Structures
1.
Amino acid sequence: MASSRDTPDEVKIRATPREPVTDPTLGVEVPRPAAVKAKHRLVTIGDSLTQGFMSAAVHRTDLSWPAITAYELGLTAERFTFPTYEWPTGPGGLPLDLERLARSFEKRFGARLDFWEIVTAALWLRSYMDRIEDHWERGPGSKTPPGGPAFHNMAVYGWDLLDPQLLTSTRVAARLARPTSDDPLSQLVEHHQDRAAWPVLQRARKGNRGRSVLDAVADMSGPGQGIETLVVVLGSNNALGSVVSLEPAWTPEGYADLPAEKRLAARAGCNLWRPSAFDADWALLEAKLRGIDAQHTIVATVPSVTIAPIARGTFRKVSPKSRYFPYYTRPWISDDDFDPGRDPHITEDEARAIDSAIDAFNETLVASVAAARRDGLDWYLFDMGSLLDRLATRRYIDSPWARPEWWTPYELPRALRLLDPVPNTRFFRSGPGGRTDGGLFSLDGVHPTTAAYGILAQEVIRVMELAGVEFADRNGHPRSGPVMVDFERLLRADTLLSDPPAAVSDTLSLIGWLDDQLDLVNRFLPFVHSPL
């Protein structure tokens, strides 16, 4: 009997990576009508990459790429809104801000954890986690969020293509009403993804009626309002859980034939969509996006999740010309210690199958944008997937023979090139002397740092400029192009790069210890859907 981990026959395994799309218009011209002043200049729909999630928590939503883009547009806080979850002085993020934990740990135990402190450190960690859990399950974080106008950033971490279409505040509130436990041995914020979605969906309500994010955005484009630019960044969570868990679980056969509501139940336990399943979910979303009257719509492709350093390639590449390593495991498991019979991992063939599925996802997205443009809609493609390919350190930068003919390195902004070491896509490492490696991914090995969110903002801005969007300075004066993101400002806000923690003498060692204590990756980065 086939396992859910077995690659479905419909997945076409590809020997070469998908070529990037360099023209956001896909070569399809669309007559551009005269600009009409819109009440909402920027609206975004997405998942953790758009919400501003980093280091295993959502807390600095003011440093998300949409917020950075809005800043460069010259928008005030009233003209680009987003949910806030807690102040930097709060209990510790939702579900767990690893950077704050590392700094608190360092303050308590210093840069190195001695052998005789291990038991004390474990007890301290439980107490730290208990404060976070109490805040969100029984304290201020458990209160019903206030209503009000829909946010401009409507992203929620963990969401795949179905969630912004089908989830409502009513459905989420019902799940949160289920009893929670206060298990002293399992200090995890229960239903934390729903708690992150609740403020967003409360703002999507209309009167006493719960609605989806798509419903609320459609209203924002209606008469008397209007959306200038809508950006949609979804699809990563239709594959990301496969490398976070290191246990690929494909959607079941026949998923695409189910009604949308039944797909919510059918996806339980799944972390990797068959191409047919992705196509079916995207078709529903595309139809609703076409009903939103935005002047410009930008759709992002899905990045290759096997590049994320949470899954480290072991040993040498399978061949000098290959993109792949024989196994992928946790970054804190060294080659000398790795045992494929004991340690979690995916194989080269599984990594290739995951990437091949994502290539199929992206072909669907490219075709969707091209069709919309042929129908006269001013849609654009942001090829976020190829952007990560051009930044991939171990896959391409360190392996010249593995580079496709089309590959060129992405030129980092000057402010980042001046850092020592220059930021890259390896797992973040730092010690008493400062950062020693990484810098583009935060401490969870999945999500960007603030500076890397700036790179995403910069690329979205380039597409917006192509669409004719006008940018202004903080005084409201028009800016001439090309508009450049203020990376000096972002570096001052990026505490991970400007003042890296040194706990346990090496942040990688700390994350490994936390994973041992808490099953950190599987429980705090849960990209596998639970039953409804």
Note: The chain has one domain: 40-524.
2.
Amino acid sequence: MSQEVKLTIDDKEVIVPEGTTILEAAKQVGIDIPTLCFLKDINEIGDCRMCLVQVEGRRGFATSCIQKVEEGMIVHTHSPEVIEARKVILDLILSNHQRDCLTCTRNGNCELQNLAVKFNVTGVRYEGEKNQHKIDDLSPAIVRDFNKCILCRRCVSVCKNVQKIGAIDCINRGFSSCISTVGDNSLNDVNCTFCGQCIKACPVGALKEKDSTEEAWKNIKDPEIYTIVQTAPAVRVALGEEFGLPIGTNVKGKMVAALKRLGFDKVFDTNTGADFTIMEEGTEFIKRLKENDNLPMITSCSPGWVKYIEANYPENLPHLSSCKSPHEMFGALIKTYYAEKMGIDPAKIYVVSVMPCIAKKFERQRTELQNNGMYDVDCVLTTRELARMIKQANIEFVELEDEAFDDPMGEATGAGAIFGVTGGVMEAALRSVSEILTGQELEKINFEAVRGEEGIKRATVRIGEQDIKVVVAHGLGNAQKIMEEIKNGEADYQFVEIMACPGGCIMGGGQPIKTSKTRANVDVRKKRAEAMYEIDEKSQIRKSHKNPVLLKIYEEYLGEPGGHMAHELLHTHYHAREKYNLKK
């Protein structure tokens, strides 16, 4: 057990465990110390120096995010000298910043802007030469504008230490230092998976998603185009945050109402697509299990994860499920079954997916995800982009009356909802696989063993007379460990779920961005996950194979799960790809 240390911060006595930083100690007694580069447990390097404080008896300032407390220490966090030093630091950062706040996507949610307001910055004292960087907009998912970069390195730490990718780092030295890729190439040409975790880590607007709102507006307004929008499960528990609602508020009804106000012809639920995914993936798993073929089978719902395995572990690709992700399956059904049923020319249908994910923008344009020469999905909007469209349309979101998804593609199960959390795909699959294999109703529908925040969760599930070993991993750093086990022949499990984003889709790269201070004070992941599980608990139907819409479409159109038509529309293939496509 660690010893306790007594110190004084701004005349308040504090007792904390040995090894605590001054920043953490101050927080415990309600004293706020400003930070910029600090990201708890991810980027604790003291580079920006905004968190500096005075310690009596010492020359200069201490960097509170890395300085450990000491017995008897007396700390001042807002003396005139400290405040002036912070203003000078802020001034120097702003002197090399683009400062086009009014047209920046982070306007109103920028940590640098917040500090400028807090310290009453009304001008920049140290105007001088600015770095000029090219804007990298070549990828289908992410735009880099490092004219706005403040060299905090938060994006670098997330990419390197959490996701274990290392697609970006600091290059050059001195005034020429910047965050870039190997050879200063585009993200499109290096080992980036487009997970978007760097965007969420960025305190300013140096990183953002590739905007698709203009394209969406153009097609909504075209009277010749039949626009259909589908929304992923995780969007409904995060969208409200963009309008001031508490973290984790389920705004499904208001979201649907807003989408109809925007002008979409039909509003469908991607959760229905998730139910189809479970039917196909579950059927594929049962077949592999019986034939002992390419086990363990790995889920393929996360496009960032799929790009990662294609580039880093191509030898493990045979283990990957051939199923498309839920929104791609749904897009294929909309342009075939639904188009035929409604008598609409599929060439006139424009499918928009609202996703919590940046990598879905990359996935959407994969050539493998086409039918009859048409992409299954035509446009992907992030949760943030949808919020911007709602605001642009001057819709008072919070005041909207709840509305329901349109028939017949709006009925989904609780199993489809929990796709948004880590372990959700696994749990949904186990519910259906168990009942299909045994022919008996489950006594206990929740599979608690695959829930939770642990980076890797292992469990053994009894199905009939057979024990099924499963593993769930979220975050690509954890996925790497599972891939090494499979590659080295050390995997003793049959079924694997992997999500690229830590926490799963609820924490996707396209979700509302929270400041480092909010993250430190609120467990965002927990609140959004609780909302997802509540949706499941309150659902009338909680097993994918019981969805009446799904059963009807199989009967009328697809035939049996895993059959010829289902394979044509709902399955695909993946291929090895190069990590780098560098300029010669």
Note: The CA atoms of residues 148 and 516 lie 18 Å apart.
3.
Amino acid sequence: MRKFIVLVLLMTVATSIVAQESKEHEKISPYLESLICGEDARDIRRAPSTETQTITLLAKLAEDADEEELAEKYGFEVLSRIGRVLVLRMPKGSVAQMAADNGVVRLEAERMPRPMLDLVPQQIGVDKVHDGLINQLPQAYTGKNVVVGIVDSGFDYINPFFRDENGVTRIQWAADYINNKKYSGTDEVTTAMHSSDASTMYHGTHVAGIAAGSRVQDSDWDTTTSKTYQGIASEADIAEGAINSEITSSGLSSATSIQAFADIFEYADQQNKPCVINYSLGDAMSFADTRQLEEEAIRTLLEKPGHVLVVASGNAGSTSRLAHKPADMTEGGCGVCFNDWEQYGTYFGIELKVKTTQSITLRYTNSSYSTNKGTQTIAVESLIGAKSFSLGSKQIQVYLKEQTDDYCVFYLTAGLTTTFTTSERILVTISGEGDAWIYADPLCAQLENVVTILNLQLAEEGYSMAWPAMMPEVISVGNIAYRFKIVTMANKYASQGGVVTPTDITDMESTKGEGYLAKSSSVGPTLTGAVKPDVCAPGVNIVSAENFFIDDDTYYSVAGWDIAALDTEYETWDGMSGYFHIMAQTGTSMSAPAVTGTIALWLQADPTLTTERIKDVIAHSSRQPDDELSYPNNQYGYGEIDAYRGLLYILNLTGIRDLSQHQPQQARVSLNGKRLNVSFANDYEGPVTVRVFSTDGRLLLTSSDTNIGLERLSHGVYAVQVTTGEKSTTGSTLIRL
């Protein structure tokens, strides 16, 4: 009897321990669990592993929890509060203990998203965003009294692209989350000069220049080849948060991005200004709900009018990402092939959504699927408790991301020392009754159909959106292609990988040619079936600021993208000497800030705009590039953003019968005090009619002159209609007296 009681007690204790471990496991997101266990194999970026004692994560506490008591017990510091979601910095070794506490609902962190910049060397050049009259911006709106936030990496705070007419930086606030420093005001920002990752990263500087760069000229200002460059919201205040997406093992995680969003919105609120934040980074979508707190925090931040988040949709549009095995198919699957994208390398990474009654088979083979280098068949029930398994000479790591009554979601990835070549493949087959899905991680792999094997042709087009671009609460942006080739300072074609003689347009650059979707631009639907992206903008071959502080080793790798030096003196900053340059880049990283800058103009017109209202403006004002499609769709969303038509819609000027909904391409309207001048780029000398309307639709003035006095008009915004005998010189624009 006594032995029986002891046995029962032991079983009870064991059951309690298992239950406690299960409870703890459910409260920690899978990636965070891998970090605290020292298993960061899912980090396919392969950053150098340096042990740190603290980690930034997201937490949600029970409503009746004593926060001060928990903070003292587990040693955390609250960095931001976003509704009930907290951003914490805490000792890495305390995470598991805290997760087991009844006062904790969930702890979460995911891998840091990566820049949405095409890593294909052919994707370099220039675009119409900065081509003056081809896409001129409304003069009445410049982003003044609006905060443009950039959450990114590699910031140059003293670049001419961010200086006002007095040479003072327009960056009003900056945070360096890599070294936990914040700078407020132009003096502190200028003294800091750059973010701590500026020697190796340049992405954020280029992105910020597109969204909100000041007007600059290249060094050929005294020749006929002189060019002027300007960001969209050229008078907006700029706030920058450096998160360095390349660092994943130094205590930073995706929670750091949430902290940056919260801090920038808080800064804008303190200034009583609306704010639009650009986030040209992303990660893979997932079948598992592993980003619960991140998404709750983002939704909370965006509830307030005047808070907007713009996100790059991704650059995986030319690849297959999803395969679906129907319930009535006994077995099915597809092949997995490998990207070779610079530092991201060739790694295996797929997500499986499968039933516990099913099994999976992986076969390691060559590009023609004709050899067998190793095969492994595993029942899903056995996979639940597995940490890894061998596949021929390769080691595959297993992560259980989610388990419900119906399905399990696994992430399978190569071990830390395991890589593949672009000539190798893995064949994935799922067997058993019921639906099942395979999703390829856009950072490291893609799917392809095996035409020679029945039922292994399930890879589908689409489903390549990144997270958080797939969220309905954000504005997600795709990429329109315009100009494909440009000669660099070295007299080489940057858009063709630095060759002397260019080839034809690469298939990555455009689906149909100039003015259509870039083939690399990620497309919808999302894994839940939602239509994405929301809108598109120019993103192939965009010229913008180059980070002055890139070190020599990195600089030589990017110098081939230099388009020109700026018209500034030879300068020395922080031990670095030289001229400031502009560079060309491609990706939805570049199209997103064009939309961010445009929304800043709209927020100047109406600081109370919400994301829902902005999507309504986009729906009613975007240009629809492909007339063979209906809109919205999973390629373009509502189409290509139109800053001017959007402003007319916001200001309720679309109902004026005689007012054009476009600006004249070959006419320029300018102000000198209260003198209005109309000039023409094509030497037009025919008849001209100029009409001036108030924003409530009243016709205030009609003239046949091109130089008109507006002295009797009070200060404010007015619409000017120029009508000639030619389409290129007819249109309207907005002025501000």
Note: The radius of gyration is 27 Å.
